[in-house]
Design a protein that fits this description.
The chain is mainly alpha-helical. It contains four helices and no strands. Helix 1 packs antiparallel against helix 2, helix 1 packs across helix 3 and helix 3 packs across helix 4. The N and C termini lie far apart (102 Å).
Length: 154
């Protein structure tokens, strides 16, 4: 009987020197790094559109509040809120707000525009927990703006 030997491919030659020095190697990706697509949101954020919506809604709401509250403590609250909202709009123009905060603020403004005050207040609470350290001045103003607009619509 004859035995048939399976032919295997020849073993690659081993070379000790590859021409690359391990000390000058750069690590592009660590073995334990998750892919970046995990952290990116499925929805795209259009900063320009968000900024325009925020500016439009805040301006209209401030104008409505200024027309309805012309005297007393409410007028002082409107004046202070106007100052805070102007600060917010300037920060947006200077691109001083993170994308996720800007997007959440846009959602809040859309809820405010639809007169969904409960939804706007929920979004405000989320913004307070997310961005209070950096954005406390205008966050207080947004809360007052929601409250003032809610008083007008009662």
């Amino acid at each position: 009987m004859s035995t048939i030997k399976a032919s295997s491919p020849p073993a690659p030659e081993f070379t000790a020197y590859t021409g690359k020095d391990f000390r000058s190697a750069t690590i592009d990706n660590h073995w334990n790094d998750p892919p970046t697509k995990i952290f990116s949101s499925a929805e795209t954020i259009d900063v320009e559109v968000d900024s325009q919506i925020i500016h439009k809604v805040i301006s209209e709401t401030l104008l409505r509040c200024q027309e309805n509250f012309k005297a007393g403590i409410q007028k002082r609250m409107v004046d202070d809120t106007t100052r805070r909202m102007n600060q917010l709009l300037k920060t947006i123009e200077d691109h001083g707000i993170e994308m996720d905060v800007l997007h959440s603020l846009c959602k809040l403004c859309q809820a405010l525009e639809k007169r969904e005050f409960e939804g706007a207040l929920e979004l405000h609470v989320k913004l307070m927990t997310k961005a209070y350290d950096n954005q406390s001045q205008w966050l207080v103003g947004i809360k007052r703006l929601i409250d003032l607009d809610q008083k007008i619509n009662q």
